[in-house]
Amino acid sequence: MSVPAVVLTHASSLRADYKVAKALLLERFRSAANVDSLMRALARLTDSALVGAWNACELPGSLALVAVGGFGRGELAPHSDIDILVLLPDEPIAHLEARIERFIGLAWDLGLELGSSVRTVSQCLDEAANDITVRTALLEARRITGSAALFEDFSQRYRAALDPLAFFQAKVLEMRQRHARYQDTPYALEPNIKESPGGLRDLQLILWVTQAAQFGSSWRELDARGLITGREARELRRNEGFLKTLRARLHIIAGRRQDILVFDLQNPVAESFGYKATATKRASEQLMRRYYWAAKAVTQLATILIQNIEAQLFPKTSNVTRVLSDRFVEKQGMLEIATDDVFEREPNAILEAFLLYEKTPGVKGLSARTLRALYNAREMMDQHWRRDPENRRLFLDILKQPEGVTHALRLMNQTSVLGRYLLNFRRIVGQMQHDLYHVYTVDQHILMVLRNLRRFSVAEHAHEYPFCSQLIANFERPYVLYVAALFHDIAKGRGGDHSTLGMADARRFCREHGIEGDDGKLVVWLVQQHLTMSQVAQKQDTSDPEVIKAFAGLVGSERWLTALYLLTVSDIRGTSPKVWNAWKGKLLEDLYRATLAVLGGARPDANSELKSRQEQALALLRLETVPENAQRALWDKLDVGYFLRHDAADIAWQTRVLYRHVETPTPIVRARPSPIGEALQVLVYVKDRPDLFAAICAYFDRNALSVLDSRVSTTRHGYALDNFLVAHTEEDVHYRDIANLVEQQLCARLSGEGPLLPEPSKGRLSRLSRTFPVTPRVDLRADERGQYYILSVSANDRPGLLYSIARVLAEHRVGVHAARINTLGERVEDVFLLDGHGLSDNRLQIQVETELLRAIAV
C-alpha cells in the first residue's frame, strides 16, 4: 500500500519535532537533571510520536497500541529499544496487515528503534505460557492508544493466567543463568551495567516477581509490606538511581544503545559525573569504584529480598531445620540468627556466623534475616570490635578450617565484613588494575589467589596441579599461606611499592593475631617477595648455576621455597585466564626443583649437571634405537650452554633428528606438538647468519604463531640449532595437523624462496591496549661476566612485535643467543641474551636502543 503524500509530510514534521524535543531533554539531563525525570519524559515523548504515527496511518479503533517491557513501565533510557505490541481483536479486519506495516515503517522513519509484535489476546497468552521473556514483557504492559476495552480484556486474562509461584521460580533460575554468563561477579573490568550481577536487571527482577505476586511494584510498597526496611528501601533507591544515571550517560556519550561500560568510554563517562584524575587515580578508576560499591550493595540487598519473597510465596518450606546454638539456627540450608538483635548484643557473633558457616555440613549460605542483621550491624564493626581478642581468635579460626575458607571469605567480602575487619582490604574493594595483566579488581584477585591455594588441598582438584597438591599436603599450617595471599596485593594503589607497604600490614596482622616466630617471618617475607620467583623463572637464565645459587640463598629453606612456589603459581593463575600456561608452569617447577637440590646440599656445578643431562638423554636415545655413539657427531659440536638450556627429553629429540645431518647443506625444520601444554615445538638447524632469528620470527608472525619461548644455540662449526615454542593465536588449532605444514613452509623460507626479511607490519593494538598504553621501555646492558648483553623490552603486545625487535637486531648484525618471551595479558616483558661482539661500542648501543624504541612504539 503506497503512503499518501499528506502522511509523508506529517511524518517529516513529526520526525523533526521528535528529534528537537529529544535533544532538549538530553541537554537538560547533561545539566544535572534527574534521571527518573529524563526517562519518564523520553517515554512520554515517544508515546506522543507513536500516537502521531498511529493516527496518521488511520488504524481502526478496535486495535490497541501497547507499550511492553521497560517502555511499559513508562521509562526509557536515551537509546533503549522501544518495545511495542499491536493488540488485535480476534475478528479479522480487511487490509489490516498493510496498514500495520505502514505504521511500523513510519515509526522507524521517525527515528524510533522498535521491537514490535502483532498478536491477538489469545496469541499473547499462548506465547507467555511458553516463554518467560514474553511473560515478563507483558507483565508491565501499558496502553498508549486504541481500544481501552481490548486492553482491559487482555489485562484481566493475563492476570488470571499468571502463576506467581512458577513465575518466581522461572525468574530466579533465569537470574542464576544470567549471573553465570558473567562469572557470578559484579567486578568485571568492563561490566554490563544492565545484565551483570548487581546491575539494573537484578533490581527489575525483584519488582517483576513482587508485582506478579501482588506484593507491590515499588520499593516504598515493599517497605510497607515488610519485605524490606525503610533503610534498605532508601539504599535501593539510591543505588538504582546511580545505575540508571550511569546507563543514561553511557548511552548519550556512546550515541547509541550501549550497556557495557567498555574501557574506551569509562573516562568520558567518569568526567561527565565530575570525576577528575588525581596523581594516583584516573577519573575512570574513581567511577568504577563507585559502580562496584553500588553493584555490591545491590547484590546484598537483592539476596535479602529474594529470600524474603520466597519465604512468603512458599511458607511451608521456611521452618527451622535445626538449632545450632543459642545464637544460630538452620533454616532449609541457610544460617539464621536466633534473634534480630544478636549482633548488637554480642558483636563476636558476627565472625562466629562465618565460622559456623564453614563448620556446619549442609549450610550453604546466610539467610535473609542474617544478611539484614549484618547489613544493619555495620556500625558495630568499629575499632574496638577489630581489637577484641576474641574476634582476632575467630578470624584466625576461619582461616584455619579444613573446608570452606574460600566461600567464607568471599561471603565476608560480599557482606562488607571482611573490609570492616581488615581496613586496608576495604581500601582495595572495587579498585581496578590497569596493568593489562590483571582482569579482576584487587579484592577479587586476592580472593582468587586464595581460592587457587585452597584448591591445591582439595582432593577433587588434585589432577589439575598434582605437584602443587603434593607440596601443600606436606606443608604444615597452610593457613600461613592464606594470610600471605590476603596481604600480597593489599597495598596496591597507595602510591608506593605495594610489596614493601604490604609487608608492614602483614607484620602488624601477625603481631596482633599471635602468628609468631618463623611463621610470622614467612608471611612478611612472602608479601615482600611474592613477585620474585616469577621474575627469576621468566626473565633470568636459570641454566646458569649462579642464578640458582643466588635464588637459593634468598629463600634459605625448603619450607620457604615451597611457600613461595605455591603462592607464585596461585598468583599468576589468579591474574587472568590468558596469562597462565603450561610453559610458565614448567619454568617455575624447574626453578623449584633446581633450587631444592641446592638447598639439599647439591653444589650448582655446570659439569655435573652437564653429565647428568647427557646420561639421561642417552638413555632416551637407546629407547629410540639410535646407534651406539651416534650422538657424538653432533654433541662434539655443542657447548656446555646448549646442554644446560635444554632438558634431557629435548636433547634426545633433537639428537635423533640431527645426528645424521650434522654437515647438511640444506635447512632442517622439524615440528611436533609440545610435550608441555597446547603449543608447537619447532626445531631449526641451518647454517647460521645474523638475520636468521629475525627471518624465523617473520615466518611465525605471518602465520599467526606467537612465540612463547626461544632457545638459540650456535655450534662450533657455524650452524644454528634453534628451538622455539609457539602457540597459534586461535585456541581451537590442532598442532599435530599443522606441524607438517610449518616444517615445509619454514624450510622453504630459509632455503631462500622469497625475501628473508620482509618489511614488518605493525599489527593493530587491542582495544584494551589502545585505552591503557604501556610506555615502551628498552634496557640494554652487559651481563656480570661481559660475555653477553641482556636486552629487556616492555611494551603493549601486538602482532609483529617480536619480529620488529628481531629485525632491528639483525640489521645491526647482533646475534640472539636466547630469548624469553613473556606475555602478560596485553603486555609483553621480553628478555633477550645477545652476543656481546660489537655491543661494547657505546654509539652502537645507543643506536640499537633508539631504533628498538621506534620499532616497538605504537
Describe this structure in words.
There is one protein chain. It contains 39 helices and 17 strands. The chain is an alpha+beta fold. The two termini are 56 Å apart. It is globular, with a radius of gyration of 33 Å. The chain folds into six domains: 5-162, Beta Polymerase, domain 2 (2-Layer Sandwich), CATH 3.30.460; 168-316, Four Helix Bundle (Hemerythrin (Met), subunit A); 319-421, Hydrophobic Seed Protein; 442-599; 605-662; 669-856. Keywords: Hydrolase, Magnesium, Multifunctional enzyme, Nucleotidyltransferase, Repeat, Transferase. Its cofactor is Mg(2+). This is Bifunctional uridylyltransferase/uridylyl-removing enzyme. Residues 1-323 are annotated as: Uridylyltransferase.
Write a compact overview of the structure shown.
With 858 residues, this protein is α+β, with helices and mostly antiparallel strands.
Map the helices and strands.
Blueprint lengths: L4 H26 L4 H22 L7 E4 L1 H4 L9 E7 L7 H14 L4 E7 H10 L1 H8 L2 E5 L1 H14 L2 H18 L18 H13 L6 H7 L4 H25 L8 H10 L10 H31 L8 E2 L4 E4 L2 E4 L4 H4 L3 H11 L5 E2 L1 H9 L6 H5 L1 H12 L4 H10 L2 H5 L1 H5 L14 H15 L9 H8 L5 H9 L10 H15 L4 H13 L2 H8 L5 H11 L2 H16 L8 H18 L6 H18 L8 H4 L4 H6 L2 H11 L9 E6 L6 E8 L4 H11 L2 E10 L4 E10 L6 H16 L16 H5 L5 E6 L5 E9 L4 H11 L4 E5 L2 E2 L2 E9 L6 H15 L2
Parallel strand pairs: 2-3, 7-8
Antiparallel strand pairs: 1-2, 1-4, 5-6, 6-7, 9-10, 10-12, 11-12, 11-15, 13-14, 14-17, 15-17, 16-17
Helix pairs in contact: 1-2, 2-4, 5-6, 5-7, 8-9, 9-13, 10-11, 11-12, 11-13, 12-13, 13-16, 15-18, 15-19, 19-22, 22-24, 22-29, 24-26, 25-26, 27-30, 28-30, 29-30, 31-34, 35-38, 38-39
